[in-house]
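Case 473 in the screening queue. Each case pairs one protein sequence with one candidate compound; here the compound is pyridoxal-5'-phosphate. For every case the pipeline is the same: read the inputs, emit a complex structure as tokens, and attach any notable structural observations.

Predict complex for case 473.
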Amino acid sequence: MARENTPRTMGQQFGRRSWAEPWKIKMVEPIRMLSRPEREKANEGAGYNTFLLRSEDVYIDLLTDSGTSAMSDRQWAGIMLGDEAYAGSRNFYHLEEAVRSYYGYQYVVPTHQGRGAEHLISKALIEAGDYVPGNMYFTTTRLHQELAGGTFVDIIIDQAHDPMDQHPFKGNVDLDKLQALVDRVGAERIPYVSLAGTVNMAGGQPVSMGNVKALRRFCDRYGIKIYLDATRMAENAFFIQEREEGYAQKSIADILLEFCSYTDGAWMSAKKDSLVNIGGWLAVNSPEVFDIARNWVVVYEGLHTYGGMAGRDMQALAIGITESVEEDHIRSRIGQVRYLGELLISWNVPIVEPVGGHAIFLDAKRIYSHIPQNQFPAQTLAADLYLDSGIRAMERGIVSAGRDPETGDHRYPALEMVRLTIPRRVYTQAHMDVTAEAVKYVYDNREKARGLKMVYEPQYLRFFQARFERIAG
Ligand SMILES: Cc1ncc(COP(=O)(O)O)c(C=O)c1O
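Case 473 output:
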């Protein structure tokens, strides 16, 4: 007879058979844990900003899923096929073909990473005084829109700002909010809707197919374009397959292609879904927009057949695109994130729910409820987690939100979170267990935590380089 404390497999814990990672490990990279005094010193040296830690001082690195994936043996083989010609590299044509086949856009401009493509599309489409509505801001995306003279307007559904709301598609656009913006500024001042598949800052929350279809109908009425941040669109396709009626039998690849068909183009940080360490692209259906972007790419990125990537990078990316839509891959990728989330939920640690695609977002507002937002509770929590266990996470709250360009005040986002971002194909279930236990320990000791004050603040994207000190207790 099973005893109460009989250890259970991960599957049994959740009333099902276990899954295992659909890969085996061919090469390892040793990691080590510093002693607590060493971690204390590293934390202080980094000004309590996890971006300023040296990676060799980190035990489990959950700072980001960007460029941190493990490439497959097929991708590494592709690296050896790099054609490093300045112009017309064959790897570019492989990449172009992969983007056309899997995302469906006609014209492809390579860039060194996502923000290179954001720069091009913002420059091509936004004029001073324009408004760019979007389903929640993303740091680099909004900054490029502002630098091009635009004003970002948040039109995501209200539920996205509530970490406990269980809406299955918290990334959806609220068409009433979009209508209100059209009524206020006029459709001619809105060059495009900036739509993100799985919304990073909302906790990796998806957009439904029904929502993008309705958005397309709305935009067609007013002649407004839709451009997609496709960075984690393959993960978004998984949630549609899992949750939306009529999609359970469709493949991830088919869902991805259908979703993109309702948009006019996309920009991509290939460092996420596409399983490469560097790379990106902009892809559009309009020959006019392509012409402008292709003109600018040679100024800012590199020739239009490499855009800042080496030939070998483009080959690894072309292969990564095909792997990113494999059903086993995506199920295990999101399953691993969900495993960590379910463990934390079962231990009553407050996180953003439902668990999203690429990360667990700890709800620092609830965890450090005694620390006011202007003493940076999420920044503090990330620093405390590193101190406890050598695990590196990232702040996604008031520091990331930056200052309002008009008033110069902090923006105070409703969500004040620490992101535990899971790199793809890098860590095992044991790493997830260690992470969950560390988070629980910090949570159990939450009352002892003291906030931070900012002592250095750069002008742009301050979360990357800002420095902090502990407030004396
Ligand atoms: C949703 C989203 N869009 C755009 C970017 C920018 O991409 P990159 O870091 O490759 O410049 C990121 C990167 O984190 C992202 O998460």
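Case 473 observations:
- Residues 142 and 152 are 6 Å apart (CA to CA).
- The longest helix spans residues 327-346.
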